[in-house]
Amino acid sequence: MTKKDTAKKTVAKLKKNKHYRPAGKKREGNAARYMTRSQAIKQLQVNLSVFRKLCILKGVFPREPKKKVKGNNQTYYHVKDIAFIQHDPLLEKLREQRAYQKKIHKALAKKNEDLATRLRTREPSYTLDRLIRERYPKFVDALRDLDDCLSMVHLFAALPAVERLKINVERVHSCRRLSHEWQAYVARCHKLRKVFVSVKGIYYQAEVEGQKITWLAPHAMQQVLPDDVNFSVMLTFVEFYETLLGFVNFRLYHSISVKYPPILDPRLEALAADLYALTRYMNGNTKRISEEQESGSTKPEHTRGQLEGAQFEESEHQLPSNEDRALMHLIEEDDDNDDDEDTKKCKKLFKNMKFYLSREVPRESLLFVIPAFGGVVSWEGDAAPFTEADQSITHQIVDRPSQGHMYLSREYIQPQWIYDCINFGVILEAHRYLVGRVPPPHLSPFVDNEAEGYFPDYAETIKRFEAAAKNEVLPMPGVGKDDLDDPQLLLAEGYLSRTEAIEVAERKKERATSEKQYLEDLKQEVQGHPDATASIAVEGAQVEEESSRPHLEQVAEDTDGTALMMMSRRNRGLFKAMKIAKDKKKAKVEKLKQRKKQIAEST
Amino acid sequence: MGKKPKSSRKGKKAWRANISTDDIDEFIEKSTKDALTGGSLAEVPNESLFFVDKSKDLSVKRKIEKHREKVLHCDSVLQRNPFVKAIPSSNDKKKSSMKNKKNKKDSTEASTSKDDATKDGESGIVDLWENEAEGDIRTRKVVKTSVIPAVEVDPPGCSYNPNFEAHQDSLAKAVAEEMQKVYQSELGPQPVPLTVQGDAIEEEEMYFLEVDNGDDEANEENEDAPEKSSSMKKMVTKVEFNRRARLKDRQKKESEAKKKAEISKEIDSLPTIIDEIAKEDEEKQKRMMRRLVAKQERLKQQPPRLGRHKFVPAPTQVLLSEEITGSLRKLKACCTLATDRFKSLEKRGLIPPSANKRRRKYNFAYELRFLAGDKVLDLYFIDDGEAEEAAGVLIDVRVEDADGIFVHRMKAHYVIHKTMPTNLGPFSANNVSSYSGRGTAKASSETFGRDAHVSSSSPNDEAAAAMEEEAERKIGWLLKVIFAGTATAIGYQFFPYMDGRRMKIVELGGAQELLNMLEAAKDDRTRKAALEALAALTKSDKAAGALHKAGAIPIVQSTPSSVEEEAIDKYKTGLLKRFQDLKYDGSS
C-alpha cells in the first residue's frame, strides 16, 4: 500500500513539475496582461488614494481587456502600466511623505507641539517637472492637451475654498492667477478666435502655434460643490494641470519676450483687476525689451517672423502710432510682423473703438475678449483706466431694461453684440442690440453651417450683410485675396471693367511669385534651422487632419464597390459608420427645414 | 606595595632541574616548523604572494577581436555589391540602444542637477521644452483612451439666447432623456411589497405547509412497477427471442440503406449546401460589421465599461422656453460645472465611473452669517441637515435702509475669498430663485427690523410663482428654523398665491406655531412679524377657517397695539376684518 502511495505521489509531482512556471510568469493571455486594481495596489504597496494619485500624475488610465478574467465588476490596468508606475521615483517620494505624516501624527498625539511644528517645516515635497516632460516630450504635445487643463483651472478659479473638501485658498488663487496669465497672453497676441456663451459657461477657442485650443470658463456666479463629485480626484488633476499651465505660460511669455512670473501692481491686484494689471505689465515689458532687442541681436524665431513680415509689409498700410492712446490699447505697429492672416484680422476688429462696461455686464469675460480683438476697454470701479464721462468712448455695454442718462456720442449696446461681432468677424449693426431690446439669437460659432447644410435665419442675414460690407463699407483686413480669387463676385458688383481685370491679373501674379519666394525661403530655413521644422511639420499635420475627412468621403463616393472591397475590415466598418452619421445629419437638416416651414405656415 | 619578600632558597623551586624551559622549547619548535614549511605567510609581502594571471586574458581579447571582425556570410555577399546596402543586424541595434540608455541616464542626472540649481533662483520655473529638438527624452507611446474630446462644445440649442429651431431640438433631447428615465422606472420590476394582505399563519401550521397528502400513494405505485417488469422478462420464450433478433437485424439494415440514400441525396444537392454555407458566412460577416459599427458609435458616446458602475451622462443644460430672456444678466446659468468636468473625466475613461449618488452626512454645526460688507449683521448656528440645504449658497440681497442701499451677502459656511465677483450687479428675482434657501435670505433680511425690503428689478408674476414653488419645498426647513423666530412667519407674506399651499402650512402646524408665537411674543417686532404672516395666510378661506378653529380671534384681539409699530395695528384690524367678512364672530 505504501509503495503504491509513493508511486502516486511521484507521478503527481512529475505532473506538477511539468506545469511549473517560474514565479514571475504565472499565466498567459489576458490573465497575464491585465491586473485588477487591488492587485496593482498590492504590487505597488501603497494605499488606494496614493495609487489614484500616481495614476493621474503618470497618465496611467484603466483599460478594458477583451476577457475580464476576474469578473465584470473590476477595474483593470495593464501590467506594463503598473510596472511603469513602479519604476517612478515619485512612488518612493509619496511613500516617504506618508511615513513623514505618521511622524507628525505621532508628535501631535504625544502633545509635542514643538516637534510637530519643526517637522512640518521640513516636509518632503515633490515636483512634477519631470513628469510633464515625460508626458509631453514636445511643446506641441502640451498645447494639444491643454483643453482639459484650461477648463479645469478656470473652474477651480471660480470655486469657493472649502476646508472640508481640501480646496484651499492658495490653490484657488494660483488657479486664478494662471488663468489670468493665459488670458493675458491670448489677448496680447490676439489669438482668440471664437466665443460661445452657453448655459453651462462660456466656451472660448484660441489658436496658439497652429493648435486649436478650446476651453470652458464658468459664468461669473457662485459655483456649487456637488456631492457626486470626487474632489480628491479633481484636485489631483488640478495639481498636475497647474504645473503644466505654469510651464506653458512660461514658454509663451518668453516667446514674446516677457519675463514670466509677472510682477503686478499690488493696488490693481487688491482691486481684483488682475487681468488689467497683467496686460499693463506685458505692455510695459515688451516695449522695453523690444527696444533692447532692436539694438542688440535677434533670436532665430524672430528672423522667421521678419521674413513673414516682409511679405506683408508691401500691402500693409502703416498707421502712425497714436501717443495719447489709453493704456489698455494694445496694438503696436512694430509688433505686427510675426502674425498670420487670422491674427491680423482679429487684431483690427475693434480697432479705434473705445468700450465702457457698466457694472451689470460680465466684466471678466469682456475685459479678456475686447482687448483680444484690438479694442480699448474700461469699467465702472476703482483703478479703471478711464471713467464713464470720457467723451471718446464709442460704445457703452449695458444690460438693463433701460438706460437713464445717455451720451449721444456713443452707442448703448448689449454684451451679446461683442460676442457676435467676434464670431462673425465683422462689426454688426448695433441697432439690433440696443438697450432694452431682445437681441437676435446667439448662434454657436462651433457649428460649421456649410458642412451641416443648414443655415439659421440670422446667420443668413449676417452672411448677406458681411458680403455687402466686405466690398463697400469696411476696408476689411486680408480680404483682397478672396476678391481676387472670385471674379464672379466682382462681376456681380459691376466691378470688372477690362482694365481692372488686367490689373487684378497682374496683382494675382505678383502675389503668386511672392508666395513662391516665401515658400523657398521657408525651405531654406528648414534646412538651416532644425527648430523651424517642428512647427512646420505640425502645420502640415494640421492641414492633413482637416483635409482627411472630406477626402475620404470623396474617395468613397467615386469608387463604390471596388474601393469597399479593397478596404480592410476595420476601415470598412469606419466607412459605414461615417455613412450612417452622414445620413443622420441629412435627415436632421430635413427635419429642421420642415419644422421651419410648419412654423412659417402656422404664424 | 613593598618589596617582594625574599623567598628562601631552600625550596624545591630553586633546584636547577626545576627551572622551566617552556619558552626555549617553544622557540625551537617554531623555528624547526618554519624551516620545514618555508616561513610564515604573515610576514611575506603581498606582491610575492599574489600575482595577476594574464595567461587567460589574451584569449578573451582575441575572442572579442574575432567577434568584431567576423562578417556574416549574408553580409559579405551584400558587401560585394556596392548598390545594395545591408540592413544592420539585430546585434548592432542592441548595442546602440544600450549606449543610448547610458547616455539618457547621464542626461537625466544632469537635468535633475540643473533643476536643483534653478530652484535656488527666482521662480523655480525653467523652459521645459528648451531642447526638445534633441529628442533625448525617454518617450512612451501614449495610449489614447478615447475618441471623445476633452471639451465638448454644447449644441447651439444650449446657447443662452438660442435660435428657435436649435433650441427646440435641444429641448426635445433633454425631454427625451428625462422621459427615458421615467419609463425605465415605470417598466422596471415592481418592488416587493412590505406588507401582504391576509391572515397570518400560525407557527404550528407552518410545518404542514409543504407536506402533500398524495405523495405516499404515488410512492407505493412506483415500488410495484419494477416487480412487474421483472416478471415480464422471465416470460420471454426462445421463439420470441429469435423473432426479436431478426427484427433488430432488419431494422439495422433498413437504417443503413436509409443513410446511404440520404448521403447520395446530399451529394446530389451539394451546390445548394454550398450556397447555404456562403449565405451563412455572409450573414456572419454582416453581423460582425454591424457590431463593429455599433461599437464605434458607442465609443463616441460613452466610455467602455471600466468598473463596477455604468457611466451615466450628465443631463443636458438647456434653458426652458420661458427662461429665455435674451439678457445675460438674467441668465439662469448652470452652477455645477464641477459635475460637468468630473463627468467628462469619466466619459473619457480617465477614471472609472463612480456610483450615482453619494450623500454625505455632516454631523457638526455650521454658522450661517449675514454680512454687509465686512460687518456681520447676523449669525445663526444651524445643524447638519439645514447646512446641507444652505451649503453652496451665497446670496446677495439688496436691502434698502434709511442709510441707503446695502447689499447683504448671505453665506453659509464659506470662506470668502477675493475671487468672488465684487460686482454681481443688481440681483434679479429670477436669478435669486435659482438658489436654494433663497426664501430664508429674504426672511432674515426682514428680521433686521429696519423696514428692509428686497428690491428686485422685475418682480413679475412668473418669478413670484417660481419663488413660491421653491419655498414650498423648503417648508419643512422653514418650520424647523423657528428659532429664528420671525423667519417662518415673514417667509410667507411673500407668497400671496395658492390656497392649497397655505393649507399645507396650516396642516404642518405652521398656523398654530404662529399663534403661539404671537401669544408669547415679548417685543413688537416679533408680534408684527407674526401678524404679517397670519394676514398673508388668511387670504385663503380654508386657512382662515383653520385659524379660526385654532382660536386665532381672541389671540389677535388681545395683542397690544404699539406706538412704534403702526403696522401692528394695521395688520390687526385687517385680520379681524377678514374674519368678520368670513362670518366668524369674535365671541366663539
UniProtKB/TrEMBL annotation, chain A:
Classification via PROSITE patterns: BRCT
All residue ranges annotated as the BRCT domain in the record: 345-435
Any GO MF annotation of the entry: ribonucleoprotein complex binding
Record's GO cellular component terms: nucleoplasm; PeBoW complex; preribosome, large subunit precursor
Subcellular location: Nucleus, Nucleolus; Nucleus, Nucleoplasm
Any GO BP: maturation of LSU-rRNA from tricistronic rRNA transcript (SSU-rRNA, 5.8S rRNA, LSU-rRNA)
Predominant location category: nucleus
Biased segments, Basic residues type: 10-24
Keywords on record: Coiled coil, Nucleus, Ribosome biogenesis, rRNA processing
Coiled coil feature spans: 575-602
SUPFAM superfamilies the record matches: BRCT domain
Gene3D superfamilies for this protein: BRCT domain
Disordered as annotated region, ranges: 1-31, 288-320
Membrane-spanning parts: none
Biological role: Required for maturation of ribosomal RNAs and formation of the large ribosomal subunit.
HAMAP family associated with the record: Pescadillo
Family (UniProt): Belongs to the pescadillo family.
Name of the protein described by the UniProt record: Pescadillo homolog
The organism's taxonomic lineage, starting at the top: Eukaryota, Viridiplantae, Streptophyta, Embryophyta, Tracheophyta
TrEMBL record, chain B:
Assigned keywords, A-Z: Nucleus, Ribosome biogenesis
MF terms (GO), sorted A to Z: 5S rRNA binding
Annotated GO CC locations: nucleolus; nucleoplasm
Lineage: superkingdom: Eukaryota
UniProt-annotated location(s): Nucleus, Nucleolus; Nucleus, Nucleoplasm
InterPro entries in the record: ARM-like, Nop53/GLTSCR2
Comp. bias intervals (Acidic residues): 213-224
Gene3D superfamilies per UniProt: Leucine-rich Repeat Variant (1.25.10.10)
Pfam families, alphabetized: Nop53
Record's compositionally biased regions (Basic and acidic residues): 105-122
GO BP term, pick one: ribosomal large subunit assembly
Region (Disordered): 83-130, 213-233, 446-466
Family membership noted in the UniProt record: Belongs to the NOP53 family.
Name of the protein in question: Ribosome biogenesis protein NOP53
Provenance organism: Linum tenue
